[in-house]
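To close the section, here is one more complete example, presented without commentary so you can practise reading it yourself. The ligand is zinc ion.
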Amino acid sequence: MTTTNIALALAYVPIPDEIASEARRTLQDRFGHQLAVARNQGPCRSCLRISKAPEDLILLSYQPLPDTNPYAEIGPIFIHAHECTPYDSPDFPADLIERELVVRAYNFDGRIADATVAAPGEAQRAAADFLRSDSIAEVHLRARSYTCFYFKVVRA
Ligand SMILES: [Zn+2]
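Output:
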């Protein structure tokens, strides 16, 4: 069996901008939590950049998948408290490339089909490997230790 080396074009998808805007405007998330602005450090799930002092962040609950089955988990994410530009680049987010990441592949029914832990610098390849399968709809990248959601990867 030969291995093809054809690059798969990927898109790196932050959380929807309307969710970030709504959280900043109302200081409430869609799960009824009152939100606070705090000096913190973490990757913003909108611009996919790690915050730098003195940037403030908002912690909110987010559900990356539609609520159609028990895999649609809800978890904590950070976004910048100030308006930032949602990530829109064909390249893997530079601030997260050197992190060990959890890579979860979901099928078109929103169920987990496979998962792995990618070493630093390997998450892009791991996501592409999953997305070469026609049965995989999207891949979620998450923190290795806390397993909080970071962003989605889909076919471009
Ligand atoms: Zn941001």
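Once you have examined the tokens, check your reading against these statements. The chain has two domains: 16-80, 89-155. The beta strands are 10-13, 37-39, 56-62, 75-80, 101-107, 112-118, 136-143, 149-155.
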